[in-house]
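My hope is that you will study the record closing this message with an eye to the fold:
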Amino acid sequence: MRRHKRSHNITKRHEKREAKEVSIPSETPAEVIEVSAYTRDIVPNDNSALSGEERAWLTELEGEVEEVSISPETPAEVIEVSAYTLDTLPSDDSLLSGEEKARLTELEGEVERAFEIAGKALREIRDQRLYRGEYGTFEAYCNARFGFKRRQPYHIMKASAIAENLRARDVHIMPIGEYQIRPLAQIKESEKQAQAWECAIKKAHGKSPTHEEVRAAVKEVLGGSVVSSEPSSDGNLVHLGDVCVVRRTSVPLLSDRKGFWGLVMEVEEDFATIMLFDRTIPGVPMESLTALSLTDKEKQERIHLLCSLDTAYKACPNEEASIAVFHYFGRLQRAILTPFEEWLLSQLKQYE
């Protein structure tokens, strides 16, 4: 049944792509649209970027995201009908057999884990860059494939990580949706997240709490601080499309890349995904990066240089001399190359 459903979804997806050109949402800022155009040009946009195994892997992960169908804001009329049925139907367990009770418990667990599974799948798609077969950025892929707005996949991934933390701490009631626990993302410490969740359950008199009850509990745990369930748009140190220099080494994959420059491909609240000439690293704290002050022309030159270095690095022999040249360009913070640097780059391009 699941295989048939996935096949049907894939067919619908192809029909949708043939019928309508994928576009960036109208509310997307102009600079994001401009950078998206850059990334579509420099990232391969055909399925040759993915192996057959990766395409099968991506299809499986997409199926896991598609299976999440619970909306964070339930319409008022549905809540009203639910209240009516609770009043009119018998509420004792004698209507269920032992087998039915066991099945109900199993199904309830699947509902609780739905957004967790989706968050894990999205995280894997992003970290392994499985979207690169057709899209330049993770955000463009999520919008075209699932209809997600710019921040929605990040909310789901973060909620999934929080739910994993709560499950590991054996809380007696698990969350059932991303929006319900979104306020918990304001708390960085895993122990305090669990503390706030238990506090919210108490406010709900031992039942699954609402978004507002969770928000109130978070405010108490944080000592009365004003908590917003949405990230601030003004506090980012770097932005999508910025050319940045790595100034700290708090991320393992950046331990040997201090002083190297790269392009910010994605931004998620206090973290960014940065593309260097030899690797793309997600989850980099913004305080680890410093944006370079460049004109639009200089930024475009940097993007094309990064594309050339990335392509040549994959094809170039892994020799000490060539690695030294790549590292030289990887640390070069000037936008304009000298004649000798142009010649060096032309030698690297022979391997493209």
Remarks:
- The chain has three domains: 2-73+104-221, 243-291, 297-349.
- Residues 1-47, 69-89, 226-235 have pLDDT under 50 and may be disordered.
- The domain at 243-291 is CATH 2.30.30 (SH3 type barrels.).
- The longest helix spans residues 98-127.
